[in-house]
Amino acid sequence: MKLLPYSLLPLLVICCYSTAVHAKIRVSNEKLEVGETVRLSFSAPVDSLTVTYRPSSSVSKQEFLVISPPASSTEWSPQNPGLVQLSYQDRSGTHPTTVSHNISVRFRGFSSSGVAVMLLAFIILFGGAGFAFRTLFQRQDT
Predict the structure, then answer these.
(1) pLDDT tens digit string along 65-75?
(2) Pair 82, 54: CB distance under 8 Å
(3) What is the pTM of this model?
(4) Of 7, 26, 90, 124, which has the most beta carbons under 10 Å away?
(5) Integer angstrom CA distances of residue 75 from 35, 49, 66, 67, 102
(6) CA 86 to CA 99: how far, in whole Å?
(7) R_g of the chain computed on alpha carbons
(8) pLDDT digit string (tens) for 7-34?
(9) Backbone angles phi and psi of 120, in degrees to 5
(10) Which segments of 8-139 does DSSP mark as H helices, in order?
(11) How far apart are CA 46 and CA 71, in angstroms?
(12) What's residue 102's pLDDT?
């Protein structure tokens, strides 16, 4: 019977964790295209937002948006395709925490460079396979 309080400990932790309020960034449309305007909603009023295109990359680019006056929602349109990280500092608690949200931004329309790369890969791979088969089945006269 002494194990009963310890067996209830995980249940207590799960209940306390699920009732805690977490700061979040909500995006009105998760399937974005370049130049499309989207509404961002925050759990608390925010005065600035950091937008990082291609985070953790050697070619990452940051954009800082100042929201004046501080608001719990704003509109934003992505300028570059790829992975985008939206982040802000939540100062509502005793310790400031960084709140972030990753979204994927698609090209608007058809990417000709993507098709060119795929055609080049097709030619190299299947051209090499064709050359290998021709060499393999070639009649050798000795």
Answers:
(1) 888 888 889 99
(2) yes
(3) 0.64
(4) 90
(5) 12, 11, 12, 10, 16
(6) 8
(7) 26
(8) 666 665 565 554 345 678 888 888 889 9
(9) -65, -40
(10) 9-19, 112-136
(11) 5
(12) 93
